[in-house]
From TrEMBL:
It comes from Oncorhynchus mykiss (Rainbow trout). Its EC number is 1.14.19.1. This is stearoyl-CoA 9-desaturase. The chain crosses the membrane at residues 43-63, 69-91, 189-209, 215-236. Belongs to the fatty acid desaturase type 1 family. It is a multi-pass membrane protein. Residues 1-13 have a biased composition (Polar residues).
Length: 331
């Protein structure tokens, strides 16, 4: 299998991907979940209580929306976008899959945006996501969708990790993450960066710049926005692993889900992504319903990103004909 690149974004040629690497260079479908009795799930009551309080606060923030100024709502939307990009363009496409290269200023920006999203530091997020791809839908998958929608969506955060997740995570090659000074600096100061960027900045900017009340600032651009970003990300783990068509590989659970693609700014083309995880666009349709791809393209235009990996049309068509469910369409 030959990996192709977009000439408008590629300055240096990428290596040829082996034909056996259609899902991921770390994917191993020979792995099977261990047989025998499953270890009991151990609830993490701190997480349960905090998630409950967060969602209650988010619902209250939703009730406050009519009383918020237009500037506050616009600021909330901007914070949502920045937070989401810290996950989609940063922790996911850049650091988990290395699907493009980013300059130091862009990596710093994405690390800060990732802290605003507050979904574990980049190192831990990328490690768990690589485990998810390598052992998808097994006990070693952190949010194994076979265990149901609730578990894949939020339940996996409310219980202790399955021992297989921990065991397989320790065996991954993560030297690239450890060698990235931006990643390790964010990891070192992660808690402080979360307090500042996820909570204080979203709340204080409206109060300081246009006299919004701290009460509204706390519940709308802070809690409500944070809960929305979390749930948009979780939908990729749950809904996009359950509902939708499978035009590229009918033998895996991840599906094409346009609602998730819209809410998660481009991450819902999940059958494509699990079939070709190294593609920076996570879709063959470019920027269509894919704000993250548009952002990366803009960064390439500005000279802040390069070497975007793409899959050739011929390879996509061949793979769809060979393993797809027959629903593949181009354009």
């Amino acid at each position: 299998m030959t990996e192709t690149t977009n000439p408008s974004k590629q300055q240096n040629g990428d290596a040829v991907m082996p034909e056996t690497s259609t899902r991921d260079d770390v994917f191993d479908d020979s792995y099977k979940a261990k047989e025998g009795p499953k270890p009991p799930m151990r609830l993490v009551w701190r997480n349960i209580i905090l998630m409950f309080l967060l969602h209650v606060g988010a619902l209250y923030g939703l009730m406050l929306v009519p009383s918020a100024s237009a500037l506050t709502l616009a600021w909330t939307a901007l914070c949502f976008l920045l937070s989401a990009l810290g996950i989609t363009a940063g922790a996911h496409r850049l650091w988990s899959h290395k699907s493009y290269k980013a300059s130091t200023p862009l990596r710093v920006f994405l690390a800060l945006a990732n802290s605003m999203a507050f979904q574990n530091d980049i190192y831990e997020w990328a490690r768990d996501h690589r485990v998810h791809h390598k052992y998808s839908e097994t006990d070693a998958d952190p949010h194994n969708a076979v265990r149901g929608f609730f578990f894949a969506h939020i339940g996996w955060l409310l219980v202790r990790k399955h021992p297989d997740v921990i065991e397989k995570g320790k065996k991954l090659e993560l030297t690239d993450l450890k060698a990235d000074k931006v990643v390790m600096l964010q990891r070192k100061y992660y808690k402080l960066s979360v307090v500042l960027l996820c909570f204080l900045v979203p709340m204080l900017v409206p109060w300081f710049l246009w006299d919004e009340s701290l009460w509204v600032g706390y519940f709308i651009p802070c809690l409500m926005r944070y809960a929305l970003v979390l749930n948009a990300t979780w939908l990729v783990n749950s809904a996009a692993h359950m509902w939708g068509n499978r035009p590229y590989d009918r033998n895996i659970n991840p599906s094409e889900n346009r609602f998730v693609a819209f809410s998660a700014i481009g991450e819902g083309f999940h059958n494509y992504h699990h079939t070709f995880p190294f593609d920076y666009a996570t879709s063959e349709f470019g920027m269509k319903l894919n704000i993250t791809t548009a952002f990366i393209d803009l960064m390439c235009f500005l000279g802040l990103a390069k070497d975007c990996k793409r899959v050739s049309r011929d390879l996509i068509s061949t793979r769809a004909q060979r393993t797809g469910d027959g629903s593949h369409k181009t354009g």
